[in-house]
Write a structure and sequence with these properties.
The protein has one domain. Helix content is 9%, strand content 40%. The chain is built from 1 helix and 7 strands. Strand 2 and strand 3 form a beta hairpin. The protein starts with a strand and ends with a strand.
Length: 93
């Protein structure tokens, strides 16, 4: 599987596990993910309030995030949580 924001490839996803509505896996990031690092850190930081006004509106639009599966099908997801250890969690839209 592959993670995309709009038409931008952000990384390969492997070792997928399903836990109820949530999917978690490992992501091998592409260099394109670097500009999202602060955004993802803010999303997963449970100690602080997430300030939407600090980020690009397009990044906050769920319709811009999707996964391409191994059969080349595009499947929409809600904004993923990408952790510093490169764990990724998401839900299907």
């Amino acid at each position: 599987m592959k993670l995309y924001f709009q038409n931008e490839f952000l990384g390969d996803i492997r070792n997928i596990n399903v836990d109820g509505m949530w999917i978690n896996a490992e992501i091998t990031p592409s260099k394109n993910i670097d500009k999202f690092n602060d955004f993802f850190l803010a999303i997963v930081d449970e100690e602080n309030d997430f300030e939407e006004t600090n980020y690009n509106e397009e990044w906050l639009d769920d319709s811009n995030w999707y996964i391409i599966d191994d059969e080349n099908r595009r499947m929409g997801i809600y904004i993923p949580a990408v952790y510093p250890d490169r764990e990724i969690n998401w839900r299907w839209r």
